[in-house]
Amino acid sequence: MPNLDLFFNPRAIAVVGASRTPGKIGYTILENLKMTYKGKIYPINLEATEIMGLNAYPSVLNIEEPVDLAVIAVPAEKVKYVVLECIKKKIKACCIISSGFSEIGQKEREIELQKISKGKIDIIGPNCLGVYSKNLDMLFLSRDRFKRPSEGNISFISQSGAVGSALIDMIGFEGIGISRFISYGNALDIGEIELIDYLGKDTGTRAIAMYIENIKDGLEFIKVASKVSKIKPLVALKAGKTKKGQEACMSHTGALAGPANVYSSAFKQAGVIEAKTSEELFDMAKSLAYQPIMADNKIAVITDGGGFGVLAADAAVEFGLELPALTPESLKPLRSAMPAHGITANPVDVTGDASDERFKRVLDIVFRDRNISGVIAIVLPQIPALTEGIVDILRDCKLYGKPYVVCMSGGAWTQEKARKLESFGVPVYPTPERAAKALAALYEYGKIVKGK
Amino acid sequence: MPNLDLFFNPRAIAVVGASRTPGKIGYTILENLKMTYKGKIYPINLEATEIMGLNAYPSVLNIEEPVDLAVIAVPAEKVKYVVLECIKKKIKACCIISSGFSEIGQKEREIELQKISKGKIDIIGPNCLGVYSKNLDMLFLSRDRFKRPSEGNISFISQSGAVGSALIDMIGFEGIGISRFISYGNALDIGEIELIDYLGKDTGTRAIAMYIENIKDGLEFIKVASKVSKIKPLVALKAGKTKKGQEACMSHTGALAGPANVYSSAFKQAGVIEAKTSEELFDMAKSLAYQPIMADNKIAVITDGGGFGVLAADAAVEFGLELPALTPESLKPLRSAMPAHGITANPVDVTGDASDERFKRVLDIVFRDRNISGVIAIVLPQIPALTEGIVDILRDCKLYGKPYVVCMSGGAWTQEKARKLESFGVPVYPTPERAAKALAALYEYGKIVKGK
Questions:
Q1: Nearest to residue B220, comparing CAs of B193, B184, B248?
Q2: Residue of B nearest to A408 (CA)
Q3: Torsion on CA atoms A300, A303, A308, A309, rounded to nearest 10
């Protein structure tokens, strides 16, 4: 396996195709790198001697110091010559951002690059956004329009730059953070296999989410993913499940996408949790990265809105979870923690007049109950007797050591509470069904770890 | 059928249980009514002579002028006496907000109320939020925490107050508006059948969304819904699909929820579109209320992000839609509207360097194509060459007269564009799969109208 650490922790970076013109790809890349990367950056530009206050060079060969990583954003027909110069300069890693390769039928350009680079330089791309982490942002996406997430524990690899960047933007909007994002485009060299292997060892990554159009080497994928999935959860969205979708993949990343069922069984064999939609990918990655494994399928639903409890129960059962009765030892204190109209069955309904204190007592009883291995807490924070304090109460449920997810449904006021709770690493979902699916993923992952 | 117009356009309202204490239910109801309702309001309170600047009365019997509607928010054991006084006062409609009836096993209280009221006064509730429209807001939900939506064309009926109010809050956060919302709780008198019948005739309502735990009279439901569904779309979420969910319904609205398959076939027979999740209910109601019927299942996907095009194509096909090739007449102008790396197949990929102008030309060609009956426009407005103008371009696609939905995926910057577009009545979704499902609902509804 290649040493991908050079992509994330290079000692120095060259940006080939760096531009002085705001709005150009080569400008935005340089701008974002300059804002995040602490090491030395060398803009490469045939005409400029200085860009954004950095000394510019006509070629990587003009740089005297060693360079670990080249970011290449020049027209497709020039990429080959740049890569040859990078090899000569002994640069060991490059991200080719440029498009104009197999996705427009120019497969031979990739074949040529493969021949030139083999054993000499590792390549991410072409036709991609490259890599992103808090300390190395090479995305050619304006920070005004695409918010960057806080640092966190989800890593995300994507064949599609658009899907990847929109998801990063969404994650940035919510409170949950990410560790590394890699958009690898046409994958002429480094693909999902090398990335999974690398992220498996990356201490900042606690869950790996993947958008995949095709996998080139299925057996190798299963081998590597099986190993990693025992250590940390992998969740994948396969795009191109239908014939029409496969045609679209072909013109997107030049990739021949295989039939959906082949992928599903490979995922299953490899311990990869399959997401059915982009929303599920995102939802499950959040719970998998931030919550412990669920010991079994026995959960409790706690709600301050009865209808939401019904919907959560339906969805949980549909996803293979069970809602057992609480132990007799719990029922008495539960009864005394609630008014007569509160429901002590599972779902537990603390009802719409619940206060912070009532929620806290009920959560404490339910989390401690030995019949219960995981919790969906449905909290409409809008109800009158709740205060900002409910966010801290829900955060502190981490101390029970059991997996849980929160459902908060509503507008701006509620979403602000949800974001705050997520910033503490508690996954929050806008509907009970999505919360149930996310909790079910923790049970599913438990089975994978146990080899069931 | 009862005359439900008294609930929405009463000449005067009495609020029984009106309170002077901020935070109390009887205070918030009065406050919200005062803020929205233009007619005369009579607070009823045994002790006060004036509340919020309004003359208060000890009983409805002390009011001299006629009253059309009573909102009742007193303890359950007192409700009967209040209703008797309302009848004596010749009030013809009341909303019983109070809980403490069959949902806590006090079924006999409802039976007694049914006997008392029959033929004399129509009742919504008990254990509910009552009704809401822009000009009559009796919800006991603080406006600081629950945003009210703008006026629009979705009407929403819900057995669950919490589900209803959270959805209203969410709709308020997005740009789409609502016409009427009715939370009818235990439905001792007026239920989904009467409400569907009424909303079927309501000119402000273009689509009816329903959260249903149980239907008391299945045959009558099918009869009424079949009639209404020919005129305007009905979309329903059935809660209590699993045994566990049914138990939860029992303690929620005291209702015995029937098996899911019975409901599904009743919905089918009645021309009601069934939502699988609360999210789908919301998503489909938006497209059904704001977009025309789709003539057939032939759609086009237009995207500025290739991966999103793949996901939309997969989802569309899964939901029974087809993505035919465009007509030969479209291909030439389409080719000249895009650079070489643009894709003229369906999904049409205008790619990440698309400008407003390119999007506009491509949308024009695709909307006019005679092979295409509906469009999913996936617009990541974050891409550099797009401006605020893209929102107007997408709004103006209404002029083609074909149904379409928009997918915009991302954080705050993008969501602001989405909300703006929704305020013009164009449904916007955060993922391609949700957009595809919403468009498919317009095809499904077309089949219902044609009786297929």
A1: B193
A2: B166
A3: 40
Helices (H), B174-217: 192-201
Residue A288 CA from chain centroid, whole number: 10
User: Rounded to 5 degrees, what are φ and ψ at B67?
Assistant: -125, 135
User: Which chain A residue has its CA at the smallest distance from B340's CA?
Assistant: A104
Statement: residue B256 has pLDDT above 70: no
Nearest CA in chain A to B432: A278
* A434–chain B Cβ distance below 8 A for any pair: yes
Q: B362: part of which helix (H) or strand (E)?
A: helix B356-368
> Any CB–CB contact under 8 A between B219 and chain A?
no
The helix/strand/coil state of B231 is coil
Neighboring chain A residues of B315 at a CB cutoff of 8 Å: 277
For the residues A335-358, what does the mean pLDDT come to? 94
- The shortest C-alpha distance from B210 to chain A (Å) reads 12
CB B253 within 8 A of CB B159: yes
Q: For residues A323 and A315, is the Cβ–Cβ distance under 8 A?
A: no
Contact A431 B279 (CB under 8 A): yes
Nearest to A151 by CA among A196, A205, A218, A192: A205
Q: Which residues pair with A72 in a beta bridge?
A: A16, A96
Burial, B61: exposed, middle or buried (Cβ in 10 Å; 0-12, 13-18, 19+)?
Answer: exposed
CA–CA distance, B439 with B283 (Å, rounded to integer):
10
Q: Distance between CA A67 and CA A12 in Å, rounded?
A: 5
Residue of B419, B178, B202 whose CA lies nearest to B288: B178
Using a CB–CB cutoff of 8 Å, tell me whether A31 touches chain B.
no
- pLDDT tens-digit profile of A241-297? 999 988 888 776 666 667 788 899 999 999 999 999 999 999 999 999 999 999 999
State the distance between the two ends of chain B, measured CA to CA, in whole angstroms.
29
d(CA B350, CA B330): 15
**Helix or strand or coil: residue B120?**
coil
- In order of A40, A134, A180, A207, the CA distances from A9 in angstroms are 12, 11, 12, 20
pTM of the complete model beyond 0.90: yes
Q: Cβ of A214 under 8 Å from any chain B Cβ?
A: no
Structure tokens at B345: 């197949």
| Torsion angle (degrees, nearest 10) of CA B209, B211, B215, B218 | 40
